[in-house]
C-alpha cells in the first residue's frame, strides 16, 4: 500500500506561497525525487523527468533571465506536461512571467518559498519520502526500549500486549499494539506507527482496552519509531533447540530488508518483559562492539587450549 500526496498537501506542509493555478493543487505527486531543470532551459529534452516537482533556485532563474523572452516561454511550455505536478521557486525569487503564463495555460501550480534552495530541497524530499513510502501492516506490538524500536511478534494470545504493558510500567514507551503500520522510508529505514483509531491503546484479555497515555502519561507513548530488532514470542516446544549461547544471529525480512530477530520461548515462570528489556540492552552492547557470547567462546577456547598444553 502506498499513500498518495497532492501538490496541495505539499503546499500546506511547507507553507508555500501560491503564485498561480489554484485549480491544479489536486495534481498528484508520484515520486519523492526532485528535478532542477537546468539542462531543460538550454533545450535538452531527450530525458526530462516530467513526473517530478520542478525546483528553481538562483541558478535556474539567473540563467533564464539571460534568454530572449520568446525562447524562455518556449522552454517553459516544453516543461509543462500532463504529468508535471508543480513548479517551486526558492529564496522568494521573482517568478518569470513566462513561467506563470505557461503554467496557467497547463493548469500547473507555481509555488514559492523563502527558504534557500538546498534546504528547501531537503524538506521537500524528506516530506515526500515519508508520505510516499510503501506501507504494510503487521500483527504485533512495537515498543521503544532504551531508544531501540523493538517489534514484538507472535501468535494470538501468546502474551504480546501483556508484555508491552509491563514494559510501559518499567518506563518504556508504547508505539503500537496489535496492528503495526510499517513504512520503508529508504533502503535502510523501517518506521513503525499505529493506525490512528487504536493509537495509544492496549488490549489486555480479561481487562479490555486501556489508554496507555491516560493511565501512564504522555511520556509512556510515542507516535512512531524506527524498527531495529524483532523479538518473536512462541510457546515453549520441548523438542525444539533454542540458542543458549547467543552466537547465532537469526534474521527476518520486512519488505526487502533483513532485520535481526530473537526468538523467545514462552512458558510459565519466565518474565518476558525483563528478557526483552535485556535483549534490547544486549543488542545495543553488540552494536558498541562487545559481544558477550563471542567473549565467552574465546575465553573458553583459551582455557581449553591452556589445559591441553598443561597436560602435554
From TrEMBL:
Query: Which is a Pfam family this sequence falls into?
Result: Hpr_kinase_N
Query: Which Gene3D superfamilies does the UniProt entry name for this protein?
Result: HprK N-terminal domain-like, P-loop containing nucleotide triphosphate hydrolases
Show the segment(s) annotated as Important for the catalytic mechanism of both phosphorylation and dephosphorylation: 202-211
Query: Does Plastid appear among the keywords?
Result: no
Per UniProt, ATP binds at 154-161
Q: Where is this region: Important for the catalytic mechanism of dephosphorylation?
A: 265-270
Catalyzed reactions per annotation: [HPr protein]-O-phospho-L-serine + phosphate + H(+) = [HPr protein]-L-serine + diphosphate; [HPr protein]-L-serine + ATP = [HPr protein]-O-phospho-L-serine + ADP + H(+)
Q: How does it assemble?
A: Homohexamer.
Q: What is this protein called?
A: HPr kinase/phosphorylase
Q: Which gene encodes it?
A: hprK
